[in-house]
Design a protein that fits this description.
- It is a single chain.
- This protein is mainly alpha-helical.
- Helix content is 72%, strand content 1%.
- It has a two-stranded antiparallel sheet.
- α1 packs across α3, α21 runs parallel beside α24 and α30 runs parallel beside α32.
């Protein structure tokens, strides 16, 4: 007790404002733990746990050395931290004394005014159990006894923090005791019970599963009367349903119905976790969820989320800024992701029958003026387009079971694609609300990506003119950007023969847009221009290909060259600038060195200045940096020997990045409780892999010109081949 009194004085000194006194207390504390670890730990235990020992216990759990509540709490925190550092060096007698003391704390009532001490000692029980396997087994009877009494705080904390549960008798005995505690009226206790029970249920063998226990657990975990408890309960349920979905097999219909009600009525974190539970359940146990009709109720819930109103729909009509990213907990973001994942988990032929009916109903409401319904339908169809394509692998019976948006039924994929295009196109081109026009173009763009080349081959004559009219003439800049993005997707799966009748209209519309549209619109138009050039590559007539490529270069170069040399501040301007570099290089290389020669030298001056020269190099996180660097390889292949003057400026920086000399690992200062933790800078690893690949491509493009740099490459890259952290880097 004398040492506890001395330690109390030291801890009191840590709380005074006087610097000299506090520094002296810190020095005394450091000396005590270094010179006498055993007495130091026992003194800490006396300060925070004297209420567990009859010889030290006072009335109402008061401190035996008159320590204040904050001193006892500080002692418990210090004991938790220091016991891990000193436990293995303690003698057996001290270890036994500490273990008995801690085991007693589990079943002893804590001080009336300081009930949190029991929980803190329970945390220490868990810490010692991880250090001493014998104690981990010996303390289990005390844990079970505590769960059968009213003194459960310490035991619950130990079960949550420790690793006591197993597939044997302890978990089997623990589960019913915890189930009885699920009915506790105290929300904090229920929260700890749910956490402890989650770990216990994970360990139970299937033969030990009991519906009554699972029902008690679900009732506590899904208690909607306290938000924090509900959040914790949903997080625990997600882990459980992912690991042991069979636990919920008999309760699936009721559980899913209740959680879907949370999806419909709650906002924020609760709604996001509720959605994640439903989707995780479907992914872990699709057959169980289909029996619970999740392919119907889940679709309805997702479409309800997609109906969430835009916080500023009027901004879509006039804003010259890109659409802001959706919040991860917004209804639209949750609904989109959940609908896609449910279709994958439950299979398209199971989910699409209901999904197409709901989408059709929403489109009908949209046609009558409900813009939220129209946008929700477009969002849903954008997520379902891939799964509509997956129906091609299903049986004819399954395909017929999925209705078209017009209500007809068919096994024909051709008719299904036509139905999608004809249903969405009026909303993309003529709907009064810009937010709907944009969503419809996004849906058509996604459909073009997922249903290529059939959609392009069958509907280019309708879709391309409509796209180009929107890009060039829609009054809302955001709609123009969405249309340009859709054109990019369309061109990605479009052959030259399909594109040729529309090539001139497409090129002139994009070229004109580059001179007058807002930055974010031009960015997509530049990308579409590059895709246009790439589509020309599929032309089998070399003479025609050369002629068309030359015409495209002549049309786009005057608009692109001003973009690569300047650009304003911000990520959007940087992305436009880098895309313009890549597009000009692609167009020029297709046109040939006789057309591109002089402009190629100007482009290389810009790229080497901004991405390779040490003094003027742009920041490492520059938007679209990879695309701009790849333009160097394209130009090198085009120029051949004329690229020689630039090799000396390009190769050394690439070798520096490829060798990994830049910082790959840095200290993690995000968690003050962890010492000596380091993190790998993944962006540096990506840069290293990209640099290695560019060196390889540059060598292939320049051939004999690269010979002078072979020794330097071997010196820089040979060590990387055997020591790089990532296999992709070693392979390159």
């Amino acid at each position: 007790m004398e040492q506890a009194a001395q330690l109390k004085t030291i801890l009191e000194g840590l709380l005074v404002p006087d610097n000299a006194t506090r520094q002296a207390a810190e020095a005394a504390l450091e000396n005590a733990q270094k010179t006498q670890p055993s007495p130091f730990l026992l003194a800490l235990l006396t300060l925070c746990g004297d209420w567990c020992v009859a010889e030290l216990k006072r009335a109402n759990g008061a401190s035996c050395v008159d320590a204040a509540a904050e001193i006892r709490t500080m002692a418990a925190v210090l004991l938790r931290r220091k016991i891990q550092a000193h436990y293995t060096a303690l003698d057996d007698a001290t270890k036994t004394q500490i273990q008995r003391w801690l085991a007693t704390s589990l079943t002893t009532p804590p001080p009336e005014n300081e009930p949190d001490l029991a929980r803190k000692l329970g945390d220490i029980v868990a810490a010692v159990a991880t250090l001493d396997e014998g104690f981990s087994e010996d303390v289990k009877p005390a844990l079970l006894n505590a769960l059968s009494t009213n003194q459960t705080a310490g035991a619950l904390e130990a079960l949550v923090r420790g690793d006591f549960v197993d597939e044997g008798a302890f978990s089997t005995q623990c589960a019913p005791r915890l189930a009885r505690l699920c009915a506790s009226t105290d929300a904090a206790t229920r929260r700890r019970v749910v956490a402890a029970m989650s770990r216990t249920l994970l360990a139970l063998q299937e033969s030990a599963h009991d519906d009554a226990i699972v029902e008690a657990y679900l009732t506590a975990a899904l208690d909607a009367s306290h938000e924090d408890a509900l959040l914790n309960g949903l997080e625990a349920l997600i882990d459980l349903v992912t690991e042991v979905p069979r636990l919920f097999r008999s309760k699936a219909p009721q559980t899913l119905t209740y959680v879907l009600q949370l999806v419909a009525t709650r906002k924020g974190g609760v709604r996001a976790l509720a959605v994640e539970f439903v989707v995780s359940f479907a992914e872990a146990a699709p057959a169980t969820c289909r029996k619970a009709r999740l392919e119907v109720n889940g679709v309805d819930a997702c479409c309800g989320l997609l109906m969430e109103e835009d916080p500023a729909p009027e901004a879509w009509e006039v804003s010259e800024e890109p659409e802001p990213d959706l919040d991860a907990e917004s209804g639209r973001e949750l609904g989109r992701d959940a609908l896609d994942r449910l279709a994958r988990a439950l299979r398209p032929e199971a989910l699409l029958p209901r999904a197409m009916v709901v989408a059709s109903e929403l489109l009908q409401r949209g046609a009558q003026g409900d813009w939220r319904a129209a946008r929700a339908a477009c969002d849903a169809l954008a997520q379902l387009a891939e799964h509509i394509g997956d129906l091609r692998a299903a049986s004819a019976k399954a395909r017929k079971n999925v209705p078209l948006l017009d209500g007809a039924r068919t096994a024909s994929t051709k008719k299904r694609v036509a139905d999608l295009v004809t249903s969405l196109l009026p909303f993309a081109t003529g709907y009064p609300a810009a937010v709907v026009r944009a969503a419809a173009w996004d849906a058509l763009g996604q459909a073009a990506a997922d249903l290529q080349p059939q959609l392009q081959d069958d509907h280019a004559s309708v879709v391309l003119p409509a796209l180009l009219n929107s890009i060039g003439g829609d009054a809302a800049p955001r709609v123009r950007a969405c249309a340009a993005r859709a054109l990019l997707c369309f061109l990605d799966g479009c052959g030259f023969s399909t594109l040729e009748p529309h090539l001139e209209h497409c090129a002139r519309t994009l070229s004109a847009t580059l001179t007058e549209a807002p930055t974010f619109v031009r960015e997509y138009c530049v990308a579409a221009a590059a895709a246009l050039a790439a589509s020309v590559e599929s032309c089998w007539d070399e003479r025609k290909k050369k002629m068309v490529s030359t015409e495209l270069y002549g049309l786009f170069a005057p608009s692109l060259k001003p973009l690569i040399g300047g650009g304003g501040p911000g990520a959007a301007a940087a992305a436009l600038r880098a895309r313009s570099l890549e597009c000009l290089a692609l167009l020029g290389c297709e046109a040939g060195v006789d057309v591109f020669g002089r402009d190629a030298a100007e482009l290389l001056q810009v790229v080497t200045r901004d991405y390779f020269d040490e003094a003027t190099r742009r920041p490492e996180d520059d938007a679209e940096r990879g695309g701009a660097l790849k333009s160097v390889v394209r130009v090198a292949a085009c120029l051949g020997e004329d690229f020689a003057p630039f090799l000396g400026r390009v190769v050394p920086p690439l070798l520096e990045a490829a060798s990994g000399n830049r910082l790959l690992v840095e200290k993690d200062d995000s968690d003050d409780d962890e010492e000596g933790q380091y993190v790998i800078r993944t962006e540096a690893l990506e840069e290293q892999c990209q640099a290695c690949n560019l060196v390889l491509l540059l060598a292939e493009a320049t051939g004999a010109l690269f010979a002078n740099y072979v020794p330097a490459c071997l010196e820089a890259l040979a060590p990387v081949a055997g020591s790089a952290m990532v296999g992709d880097v070693r392979a390159v």
